[in-house]
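User: Structure tokens for both sequences below?

Assistant:
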Amino acid sequence: MLADALEHLVRGIVDNPDDVTVRDKQLRRGSILEVRVNPDDLGKVIGRNGRTATAFRTVISALAGSGGARIDFVDVDRRR
């Protein structure tokens, strides 16, 4: 549920929504949501001084409740 919500939010602000993928990784310390975006969109997702990324983290933390979730933003380089 959290991955779907985050993917929906990120797709709404990027120029290349087809390149957005969110993976939910379950680790010993908790859940990590890994967001992959086009390199051209990474700046939009992070925002000035990280404000947009912080806003995403705030929304997802509110949805996650006491369990919490971390979010990592990664760019996708199609040339590899």
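Moving on to the next sequence.
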Amino acid sequence: MPEFVASLLAAGAFCLTLLALNALTRLLIQAHYAPADLGESGFLQIGGALILARIAYRRAPHSQLD
């Protein structure tokens, strides 16, 4: 069960981070602070979301097998 909780937290962190980074990218493009080539759901956004999902997975409770 702890493995399921860790996976669920990581998936939630990935989705929320991707949504937030896409919204930030859209605002930066509209405000002309970012190049127009920087698109939503690009490598930068997915990479950032994967990094935060990995951190969430590592920090989630895991079963300790002795």
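User: Anything stand out in the second?

Assistant: The chain has a mean pLDDT of 85.
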